Amino acid sequence: MSFAALAQGINIDISGEFSSDDLPETESPTVTMYCPNDYYYVCYVTMSPNEPSVIYYRVKCDDVISEWKRYLGTLFFFQPGYYTIEACAIAAFKSESPHVGGFFYIVQTPYPRGSVNYNYDIDISDVTLLIDKLLGKDVDIDLQSADTNRDGDISIVDVTELIYFLLNGNWRDETGE
After folding, report:
1. Which of 4, 18, 75, 144 has CA 20 to 30 A from 120's CA?
2. What is the C-alpha separation between 74 and 122, in angstroms, rounded?
3. Do 29 and 100 share a structural domain?
4. Is residue 95 helix, strand or coil?
5. What is the pLDDT of residues 122-166, one digit of tens each?
């Protein structure tokens, strides 16, 4: 029964049995993983449909599996761990596609917390580079080191943590503040 028929109050008698097995499968999405350097400190994952459809994915990191989520744009990983990506697509009037995906490993960066610019010193240049990244400039930073508050995200909070370190010589979570 069409949505137009429902909206007009037309009663259509549908007889017989129907199951999702009667539907054709949606084509699987294409999953692309890109690690931009030889050290695998970061990985980007993009997905694209092979027909008009909605893509869903879930991530397994080590032994933790996420819930299924709708894919809205490039996924970005920089926390150390072994990742498995699983994706499927669903098109209108079709059944779910076969699941596809892949895996990658993010290694621990050798640079200390706060060393955004790939050296072992923490100074004001790390702050300015992190601010540039947050403003959308195309700068290369060590994302693991930039996650100074260790919440799995890069934000202005990491800048304030970095400034706190430069002013006090220690990290806020190490002082109990």
Report:
1. 75
2. 30
3. yes
4. strand
5. 999 999 999 999 999 999 888 888 989 888 788 999 999 999 999
Please name the residue that has the structure tokens 């697509």.
89
The residue type found at 159 is V
- For 14-80, the three-class secondary structure string (H helix, E strand, C coil) is CCCCCCHHHCCECCCCEEEEECCCCCCCCEEEEEECCCCCEEEEEEEECCEECCCEECCCCEEECCC
Tens of pLDDT, residues 75-129: 988 888 899 999 999 999 999 999 999 998 888 888 888 999 988 899 999 999 9
Sign, CA torsion 131/136/139/142: positive
pLDDT tens digits along 42-84 = 888 999 999 999 999 999 999 899 999 999 999 988 888 899 9
Same domain, 100 and 128: no
Last residue of a domain, one of 61, 77, 106: 106
Shared domain for 48 and 129, answered yes or no, is no
- Phi/psi of residue 74, nearest 5 degrees: -50, 130
Residue 68 lies in a domain: yes
Residue numbers of the domain that contains 170: 124-175
- Asked whether residue 61 is domain-assigned, the answer is yes
Number of structural domains the chain divides into: 2
Q: What residues form DSSP beta bridges with 69? A: 57
Return phi, psi of residue 111, to 5°.
Answer: -85, 145
